[in-house]
Every structure is written in C-alpha cells, then in structure tokens.
Amino acid sequence: MLSIAYFTRMMAIVGRAKANSAVRLFMAPGMGHCGGGPGPNEFGQFDAGNGDPASSLGAALQHWVEQGVAPEHIVATKRKEDDDPPDTVPVRTRPLCAFPSVARYLGEGSTDQAASFTCGVAAR
After folding, report:
1. Total of domains in the chain
2. pTM of the predicted model, to two decimals?
C-alpha cells in the first residue's frame, strides 16, 4: 500500500487538480509484483505506445502526452496461462481504474467481462 500512501501524499502536497494533470495510479488487484498472479495482469504495460489506449498502458500514456487525454481506466486481461500469446482468448477482463476509483460490478452480466463493471467510488 506504499503506492497509495505516496500518491495520496503527493496529491495533498500539489493539489488534486495539478496532480491529475500529470499523474495517474492504477492498481491491478490479483497481479503479482511484476506480473502473473490470479488476477488480470496484461494491460499493455510493455508495449511502449503500441495498441489501443483502452487496453494498453503504453498507448494510453502516449495518447495522454500527444492528445492531452488522460486515461481513467484501462482494460486488463487474464489468459489461461500467463505466457499464452496475445491472440489467445482471455478467460477474464477487468477495468483497472484510476485511483481512487475502483472497478464496481454493475450487478448483471459475467464477472469475467470488463463490460460488467464501471469505475466508481470504493464501498466503505
């Protein structure tokens, strides 16, 4: 949780508006430190600007810098095996939401599909 503590402190120091113009924090629940784990763990984090900004962190960052559109969520994918090729059908997709938002289930649809979730305030 040090990432959240750092991010929260940084926002308190520079202000939310200034921070949101330059920084986003995306948590990946169920992902191991550098990859793997039971949760969706593939979201274009190694693609350096390639792909769709909706599902590629690299493309989302490039889009933010070049077009001024900050990412609010990125769709992450989980494949049956972590080393399966990208054209393998995923077993789960889930939105990674810009902190402090979290993925909230809409109450209907498959819990393995990102379309069944929206980014919103965490339940308390």
Report:
1. 1
2. 0.89
